[in-house]
């Protein structure tokens, strides 16, 4: 019932009225918040204040801690140190946040939080059941979400009775935003990359709605990689890096380049402190290098016409923001089942998620290390333990794996486990080694060892394809492909490779409209439902942006 | 090396300890010499061990992997084998036919599991159902008799030890070698610990898993062929072997969550179960009470083994480390004592 009370559109205060941050109690204050996952310091004593009636933009590169901060602000996770104050009520560190404290804080996720098997209305019940009647909730939820969708995204083409699974990516995002906004009271709406899968028109409507929310006294926290959008919508911009908010500036008068500089400055500093060793001498890419793998206009499963070549003995980097198609390229190279991918020779894979896809927990280091090499060492399916032991001992010494070949894998630290898994790939006879962002959360000494190993192996004629979310690592590559939205947007060779360059290219807002544009501009009337949804879905499948 | 302490840390020892205890109780209750009891147990256990070895391989392939079609396969293979050998007059052809029946059923399971992503328990249940139906069709009006020559061979007990027990013991040794010394065994163990990691390490997960189900089917087929000759082909010949085969695998120390196989333990578990049957018969319990006891035993062992938990530290049973390799390798000087966790 409360949901019904939420006013929709017409009597909203015109934009601009609520713009000056009020002097009332701030909606949310994060004071000195720290959060650690294992060895990773996701948040290192960060401060952030959101006032009532303002739009705060939050920018930062991959791994700067944006998502973790959002989770803490939304009450999904407690913090290790510091405190979060919601509307003057303090939630201290170390306690599990209680739901009632965070009732007015709502978050729309980038990967939507909707249950795919349920209808839109049923999803609304899941997150807003407090405001819905116990009986006939379905109708109330449907009515509420329909009104809200009409208000935010006119012509959305979504029926509350549609199953989420059947919606297009853009429609799912719309439903997600509507879901998050249906709360009473709505004190803070957190939007995590809301426009990444929306077309320009839908983005426009969304930002108009953001103004409506602030005019009603709510606040909006906008996280986006699209700096220009942030600057045009936000009142203030907070820049995060290395787990804390380092700059908090009024958006007015700030340029895109200024913000990029604030974000990229971190990388320049990091390079200068010597945290990363100077790049190894690169192989000059020669025209006569034999090609070991090639993608020709690979499309589908998150890729959109990707073409790339990997030469023998080359270290090829896949850079860009996380989730732009780099891992799909690795998947293609690992299992080349489609015709657009040509791979010569054998491959080995180094997973980034070592616990899930790397470690064999019951075995020793030696057993873990030689499992890939075993099959080439063996003769007619019979193992040759002496040879295996020699290989294992060799690699344990070469990478100075603590504990030795006979230690139980489960007893090793994360960094040493990662060494074993990298060694597993390089100990095999594979012609090409695929690295799936394997050095996240690995300490700097281990990284230095492994960078050296990669260069040494490449010098011996092995090809390495390396996806990394850390742009600094790309300095160790001969060639780097920068990805955005499933496309290669730049190919940097040799001296062109620099963090500043990669950041600039990955954030550059392309001239071409985002993939879902076709969808949003499908002329629709928000009357009845299936007939409208059908052409929208068709428009999307004709477009390129498809996740699975 | 094999100090008593070392021996007790071996997971397979407990089945034998339990078997010894039951044997002692049987001797105390019946007041007769124990030799005959052991000889009888040894003539019944090999069939269970054969099925158990196959089940062990399947269970080792990782969480969710189980073959519940072994019971129907045994019954089906019994009829197929006896029928073929009496029709052709060749015992070898008969056994091969029984084995082939097991392979066919396992092939159906494999296609369902790997091709259609059906959960193994459902897939093998379904293929088992197919096997049961086939059995009933064949059993209708079945008159062939088992080959007396083979039956005599199965009853042969030089020095009180049944010949079949020796053969199956040799097969168990082969299973140990298979698991330790071949790429197949290694790959299977790796897949059982972490299927995703094994796939990323380049192991042929699909092929290994399919081979494992086929091996289980073949072993169940073989056991059915021999059992039908030893006793007689009946439609419910294999019924009790379903729970028993899983139980002896678990009691034998094989991890129910996969990744560690203990072939020797299957013998301990099988002897324990056979002797337990004998004891319960001796004191005159009903079949229902027997099954109740067995079910509780399996649950108890699983409880002891940490509910099949694979988290290191949570499970009281840690992977065995071979002392010989420790001695053979140059251990780096005291790197924080991580090896002695």
Q: How many H/I helices of chain B?
A: 15
Question: Which structural class should the secondary elements of chain A be placed in?
Answer: alpha/beta
Number of helices of chain A: 18
Q: What's the β-strand tally of chain A? A: 19
Most extensive interface, chain pair and sizes: A-B, 39 and 41 residues
CATH class of chain B: Mainly Alpha
CATH superfamily of the domain at 283-345 and 432-444 and 457-512 in chain A: P-loop containing nucleotide triphosphate hydrolases
**Rounded mean pLDDT score of chain B:** 84
Spatial separation of the terminal alpha carbons of chain B: 20 Å
pLDDT below 50 for ≥5 consecutive residues: which ranges of chain A?
A: 1-22, 265-285, 511-548
Strand content of chain B: under 5%
Layout: helices, strands, pairs:
The complex is a heterodimer of chains A (548) and B (341).
Chain A: H1 2-5, E1 28-37, E2 40-50, E3 55-60, H2 66-73, E4 81-86, E5 89-92, E6 105-108, H3 120-128, H4 137-152, H5 169-181, E7 188-192, H6 200-215, E8 219-223, H7 227-233, E9 236-241, E10 244-250, H8 256-272, E11 291-300, E12 303-311, E13 315-320, H9 326-334, E14 341-343, E15 347-350, H10 354-357, H11 365-370, H12 374-377, H13 385-398, H14 414-427, E16 432-436, H15 444-459, E17 463-467, E18 479-484, E19 487-493, H16 499-507, H17 517-520, H18 530-542
Parallel strand pairs in A: 3-8, 3-9, 6-7, 7-8, 13-17, 13-18, 15-16, 16-17
Antiparallel strand pairs in A: 1-2, 1-4, 4-5, 9-10, 11-12, 11-14, 18-19
Chain B: H1 4-8, H2 13-30, H3 35-60, H4 70-88, H5 91-115, H6 120-139, H7 148-155, H8 163-181, H9 183-193, H10 195-200, H11 205-230, H12 241-251, H13 263-283, H14 287-304, H15 323-328
Helix pairs in contact in B: 2-13, 3-8, 3-11, 3-12, 3-13, 4-5, 4-6, 4-11, 5-6, 5-11, 8-9, 9-11, 12-13, 12-14
